[in-house]
Q: What sequence folds into this?
């Protein structure tokens, strides 16, 4: 007996046992996160805000709890009524005080398509039919946006990511933040108002609408019809950066460009300054080369022109004409001197001839001039009869004489 | 584009987009080589000024952040972010 007593298995306390079971449950990956389908019964929201209900099918039932925050969120989309067939997302845990395991639900949706998804599809089809998502509606983004509007939470990581990205890539920009709630019931209205205010008061070149990552639920504001319409109606082009890699929101479809994250949106919004500096270097090279080429071709043309110009330059013509003038002057002088000399020579000739004709000059050489009494020059004997008085003019003085005889053939 | 005879605005007044756009036009115009020398030299000088303007903007700019509040723009420093709770 003592032996049996000694080796008796230990006795559990209820708490220990329950804790042990709870650890088993908690350690099971299948139970940590799951979807379960059933019919809702006994749905009740307690004064604490938590909801209690039971999910069941024909063979079993599962007690469920939904805490207040999830209830509040669920209220915006879908609150089940008893009898509804729903799919619930959550995990299994042990409620130690009640001694039972429970399902802790965080999302409820009608069986089949989830309500959100169904609503999403309905809205998407509607807006699509209106042409709100047409490619033709997408506006080109400015190459160098000067002013960038940002609609996001003023406190979120999204804003920090956007500002850091813009600062790194393109600090030339000016950012105008229009803070908006991006989650919760008031978020859609806040986003619509922020977009309106930005367009009305800040006139940005483009707008980044962003939100950090989250569950599909968290991003629900971006599936709001009014938000999608405001995005499409925005005067400035809109880039969305709603942090979800795979799912497109309606705002994404309506936007001019969709980026998967806030950082991605900021990258799409602006060029990188390193790229711009590289482009500038290229332009500088082209500018210098074009200027050099312009100069070189001008210089060649200039040289050619210079030669022609010198030939036709007014100064050149002036010089050449002055030279011509000099030549003419010289010619004229020569001609004048020539003519003068010629005249003098003629004059001298004349003078000589005149001298030769001077009768007195002849007298100097011993000749005599004979005249009759009346002064007529006597050339023949007949002009002076014998005994007639004649006058003989000599070089110096004269004679009166009488003709004594005539001689017909004077000797030479 | 550069053919207008109006005196161009001083480069300091130009945004990056304006300066860069004009620079592209100036280079293209100069490359066509259909300008009187004096004009070509003026284009070159303008191009250099635009180039420096663009460089300065890229290298010296600091991101300016404002916050739209009730239709008015107010300065918004990144350091204020913590104080912006509940926006």
A:
């Amino acid at each position: 007996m003592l032996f049996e007593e000694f080796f008796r298995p230990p006795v559990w306390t209820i708490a220990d046992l329950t804790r042990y079971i709870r650890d088993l449950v908690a350690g099971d990956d299948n139970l940590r996160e799951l979807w379960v389908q059933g019919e809702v019964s006994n749905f009740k929201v307690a004064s604490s805000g938590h909801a209690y209900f039971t999910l069941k099918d024909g063979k079993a039932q599962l007690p469920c709890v939904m805490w207040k925050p999830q209830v509040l969120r669920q209220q915006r989309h879908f609150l089940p009524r008893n009898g509804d067939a729903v799919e619930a997302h959550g995990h299994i845990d042990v409620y130690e005080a009640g001694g039972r395991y429970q399902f802790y639900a965080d999302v409820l949706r009608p069986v089949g398509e989830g309500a959100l998804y169904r609503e999403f599809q309905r809205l998407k089809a509607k807006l699509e039919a209106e042409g709100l998502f047409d490619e033709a509606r997408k506006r080109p983004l400015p190459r160098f946006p000067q002013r960038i509007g940002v609609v996001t939470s003023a406190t979120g990581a999204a804003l920090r990511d956007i500002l850091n990205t813009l600062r790194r890539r393109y600090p030339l920009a000016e950012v105008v933040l229009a803070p908006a709630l991006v989650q919760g019931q008031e978020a859609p209205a806040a986003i619509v108002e922020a977009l309106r205010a930005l367009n009305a008061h800040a006139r940005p070149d483009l707008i980044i609408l962003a939100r950090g990552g989250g569950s599909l639920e968290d991003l629900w504001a971006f599936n709001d019809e009014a938000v999608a319409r405001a995005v499409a109606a925005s005067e400035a082009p809109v880039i969305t950066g709603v942090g979800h890699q795979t799912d497109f929101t309606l705002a994404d479809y309506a936007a001019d460009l969709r980026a998967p994250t806030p950082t991605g949106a900021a990258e799409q919004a602006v060029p990188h300054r390193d790229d711009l500096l590289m482009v500038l270097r290229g332009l500088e090279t082209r500018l210098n080369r074009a200027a050099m080429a312009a100069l070189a071709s001008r210089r060649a043309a200039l040289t050619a022109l210079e030669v022609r110009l010198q030939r036709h330059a007014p100064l050149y013509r002036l010089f050449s004409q002055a030279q011509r003038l000099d030549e003419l002057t010289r010619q004229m002088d020569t001609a004048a001197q020539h003519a003068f000399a010629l005249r003098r020579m003629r004059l001298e000739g004349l003078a000589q001839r005149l001298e030769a004709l001077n009768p007195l000059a002849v007298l100097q050489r011993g000749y005599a001039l004979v005249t009759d009494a009346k002064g007529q020059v006597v050339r023949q004997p007949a002009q002076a009869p014998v005994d007639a008085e004649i006058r003989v003019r000599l070089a110096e003085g004269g004679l009166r004489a009488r003709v004594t005889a005539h001689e017909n053939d004077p000797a030479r | 584009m550069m053919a207008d005879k109006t005196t161009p605005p001083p480069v300091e007044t130009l945004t990056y987009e304006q300066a860069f756009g004009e620079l592209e036009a100036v280079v293209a115009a100069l490359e066509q080589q259909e300008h009187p020398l004096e004009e070509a030299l003026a284009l070159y000088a303008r191009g250099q000024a635009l180039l420096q303007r663009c460089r300065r903007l890229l290298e010296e700019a600091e991101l300016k952040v404002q916050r739209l509040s009730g239709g008015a723009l107010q300065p918004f420093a990144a350091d204020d972010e913590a104080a912006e709770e509940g926006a």
